[in-house]
Design goal:
The complex is a heterodimer of chains A (311) and B (269). By secondary structure, chain A is mainly alpha-helical. Chain A has helices spanning 2-10, 25-62, 78-84, 87-118, 126-134, 141-151, 158-163, 173-201, 205-213, 218-246, 250-255, 267-276, 281-306, and strands spanning 65-66, 73-74. Chain A is globular, with a radius of gyration of 27 Å. With 269 residues, chain B is an all-alpha fold. Classes of the chains: A mainly alpha (311), B mainly alpha (269).
Chain lengths: 311, 269
């Protein structure tokens, strides 16, 4: 309010360096106030309209249609009903549920401990260790998946040679899931640890000192002082990891192609196959909207139950 | 005693973190056959140049790298500009539609972009953009995350400085480029790194858009290489190494901005 008032007041002021500035009285000033913000926001707004709002609406409409014979026809909730009876889709949901239940908590737990350890001033070679843990996070997604695919090769693969076994990592349903989970954990643990480390560093020294004066050991300090304050950052990590898991595509495509069978199929990989191998657009759109709903729902639940301090 | 144990465990973990990376580098200097020999190679070999030549012959990898670099640079420059401008507009002006635009920005952060894939693909097909560079640059230029990041950066910018710029007769755009933008250089750096990384890693959309080999970006090319009937594993590892090199270099050179780019406002301070 005060800001716009001073702006108006500044209008009559003319600087000698800009004699040619066009002014057309009060109406012009008002028009200028309306248009100037759009010079800044306009490009993004236009891009959002064309490449976000329109395709978003189109995708929703598509999910309610079938395109049998090339002509879109109204299908109501038919595509969604189809999904409920599609074993491949249900399997893809089971697969991400497994990753959400096992990989995400393990990774976040590891990352919290790791961040805590990397934040200790007595830790020797702290900087080097931090860099080492962070290294996986700078490897290109497809590149690291390719590397793991070669490392996990059944015959002569480096992992099998080190273990002295012949595990059929990528062609056995159980081991393929283990391989996928291990790869994702390798890539993202350090990333989350760095975020958590930044959160730890925001906690003041005096809090540690107060805990020490009260006679709290390192474990008690961690549980009673550090963890509660780190809660928002842990929540952030867990929400982004959940979203990332539901969007998983690069790793399963490169590592296993979703196989064997549908053992490592993910919803987005299935969307890709349905939409761009079988060109069943309506069905692909329905998959996408289920993923949207799951992401919204799970994010909401996490904020609801872990977002607030419980008394 | 306990500290030694913790340090030991931390070091073992660090080794596990580094080994696949190290192996990728080592593997790109050996002949394909040696990679699966027993024991596997632990030290760099002498085949790096031969592998480079092979990779160049199979998929013209230098062209792939150049494509990835320039498309990522163009995308980053345009996207950072669009984001910074929009973030500035949202932070420093009150106008009709502002609330709606802010809502859209937040919504795009929540909604996975994969939901757009099918209609975007059809849009690209209808304007004949399939298998063109603009198809992988233009559609995702408005980056809600970047806009949000920049809006946060501009909100704290003192209005008095804008006023004094106006009193000096500078136009709004001029104030933005000359006064405001130089002041948020750190955040802009983080945004640029974050955006570049995103585009460098981008896979599913380029995979859908780029059909001809001469337009492949690095991730698409790597995916193509594993699909070949005779996989050249050394070449693959070399490709993976080269794919990672730019990001690793950026990390080494701009560690601070790199990390704050990743954090993306998750943590303040």
């Amino acid at each position: 309010m005060t800001r716009s008032a001073t702006r108006q007041a500044s209008f009559p002021v003319r600087h000698p360096a800009s004699p040619g500035r066009r002014r057309s009285g009060k109406a012009g000033a008002a028009r200028r106030r309306r248009t100037v913000p759009w010079i800044f926001a306009g490009p993004a707004a236009a891009l959002f309209l064309i490449f976000f709002a329109y395709p978003l609406a189109a995708s929703f409409v598509q999910s309610l249609q079938t395109t049998d014979g090339g002509v879109p026809q109204w299908a109501g909730t038919g595509q969604y009903a189809r999904l409920l009876e599609d074993p491949s889709f249900l399997q893809s949901l089971v697969n991400v549920a497994l990753i959400l239940a096992v990989q995400v908590p393990v990774m976040i737990g590891l990352a919290v401990v790791l961040a805590y350890v990397l934040n200790q001033s007595w830790l020797r070679f702290r900087t080097t260790l931090r860099a080492a843990y962070f290294l996986p996070a700078v490897t290109t997604l497809v590149a690291y998946a390719v590397v793991f695919r070669v490392l996990l090769k059944t015959e002569g693969g480096a992992v099998n040679q080190v273990l002295g076994m012949e595990v059929d990592w990528l062609n056995d349903p159980l081991w393929a899931r283990v391989a996928l989970i291990a790869s994702i954990t390798w890539r993202w643990t350090g990333y989350n640890a760095i975020i958590l480390l930044a959160g730890l560093q925001a906690i003041g020294r005096e809090q540690y000192e107060a805990a020490a004066i009260d006679g709290a050991g390192p474990l008690t300090t961690f549980r009673r002082v550090i963890l509660p304050q780190l809660r928002p950052v842990v929540l952030f990590c867990s929400v982004t990891s959940t979203i990332g898991t539901l969007q998983l595509f690069d790793e399963p495509l490169v590592l296993t192609g979703g196989g064997p069978g549908d053992a490592t199929l993910t919803p987005i990989l299935y969307l890709y196959q349905v939409g761009f191998r079988q060109f069943d657009f309506g069905y692909a759109a329905a998959i996408a909207w289920v993923v949207v709903a799951l992401i919204g729902g799970l994010s909401y639940l996490q904020f609801r139950y872990f977002g607030k301090e419980r008394s | 005693m306990r500290r030694t144990l913790v340090w030991l465990v931390a070091t073992v973990g660090a080794v596990i973190s580094v080994v696949p990376f190290y192996w990728m580098v080592v593997a790109s200097t050996h002949d394909s056959g040696e990679l699966f020999a027993s024991p596997p190679p632990f030290l760099p070999g002498a085949e790096l140049l031969a592998n480079i030549a092979n990779l160049e012959k199979t998929i013209h990898f230098s062209r792939v790298m150049i494509t990835s670099v320039w498309t990522a640079i163009v995308y980053t420059a345009l996207s950072a500009l669009v984001s910074a401008m929009c973030g500035y507009g949202l932070a420093k002006y009150r106008f009709r539609g502002r609330g709606l635009l802010l809502g859209v920005v937040l919504a795009t952060m929540m909604i996975p972009f994969q939901v757009l894939l099918v209609p975007l693909f059809q849009m690209m097909a209808s304007v004949g953009w399939v298998d063109t560079y603009q198809a992988i640059i233009v559609p995702f230029l408005a980056n809600s995350f970047g806009i949000f990041l920049m809006r946060q950066a501009f909100i704290d910018f003192p209005d008095e400085l804008l006023e004094s710029g106006r009193l000096d007769g500078a136009g709004d755009l001029r104030i933005f480029y000359r006064i405001v933008l130089p002041c948020v250089r750190p955040q802009l750096g983080a945004l640029v790194i974050f955006t570049f990384m995103g585009q460098w890693n981008a896979f599913i959309w380029p995979l859908l858009m780029l059909n001809s080999e001469e337009r492949f970006t690095v991730p698409v090319a790597l995916n193509h290489l594993i699909g070949l009937s005779r996989v050249d594993y050394s070449g693959l590892m070399l490709g993976a190494f080269l794919a990672t090199l730019p990001l690793a270099l950026i990390f080494l050179l701009f560690q601070r901005q790199f990390v704050s780019g990743l954090l993306g406002g998750a943590v303040k301070g």
